[in-house]
Amino acid sequence: MPRPFLLDTDAGVDDALAIILALRSPEISVRAITTVAGNVEVGKCTRNVNYLVDLLQPPRRPEIAQGAAKPLKRALVTAPEVHGKDGLGGVAPQGSPSLPVAKNAVDVILERCALAEKKLTIVALGPLTNLALAWKKKPQVLRKVGKIVSMGGAFRVHGNTGPVAEFNYYVDPDAAHIVLNSGLPVTVIPLDVTEQVVLMRKEVEYRAKRRASTVARFILSGTRHYMQYHRQTEGFSGGYLHDPIAVAAAVWPSIIETKKASVDVETQGELTRGMSVAEFRRHSSQRKPTVHLATRIDREIFLRLFHERLWK
Ligand code: BDR
Ligand code: CA
User: Fold this and answer.
1) Which ligand minimizes its atom distance to the CA of 166?
2) What is the pTM of this model?
3) Residue 244 C-alpha to ligand 1 middle, in angstroms?
4) What are the chain's domains?
């Protein structure tokens, strides 16, 4: 039986690759995709998710619901320089991004937790605003989640949003603080791990040429802007696979190594907003180490599965 999943996403370029990977993994069944403001405004995230689901045509269409339009306490910060103004490197369908949305993401997250009774995996690919709101609204229902995998944080590497913070935790540090202190079963996939893997432009071009499908064409054109950004900022022609690694870690947990820690995020600092901090030493921590913090990934296995699924 495929395991039930819910993806919560700010629908940028690496989110799109993560959604493709998840929708093409028969080990899981993506029951819902919820959106949250982050890489782009939330209406664009919802438009992008609808576009991707139409493109992928999964056998069972996931429920799509729109969530928070801004972080809990702060103004929204987006990343058009990384993902393009539309979030998909300029290839998202034109026109109004606002679509009729029946239910709110927070309610869908709670409903799905209640339905799956400890079996639901939530993979959070953006700021943790929706999950923090769900926790505030009905903590007893969110406790029915099986597992939460959150892409976020930078522990022993530089941040990607200022010197010390990773983007998702920088955008909504207050939400990250709430979720990471909730005691819920959270696995954190930080930049320390996601930056161990790079997808090179040459490889995308090589593989896309051999695959005459609309999904392959989307991957080729949708990643162009993202990869140019990495060339300018990181010096290589390619891109990091932050969000696909979070999906992979949830689908195949054995490809990552984790350490238990108590993890928190800076919400007060002027220079350190969104900085993530881990305490591994039990005796010196005031709090129980409830978070599974990823420290390593098996790159070969991940890349094999990633390419196998993306270009099929
Ligand atoms: C994270 O920030 C976003 O820009 C990416 O989609 C990813 O979720 C990486 O820091
Ligand atoms: Ca993301």
Assistant:
1) 1
2) 0.97
3) 10
4) 3-310 (3.90.245.10)
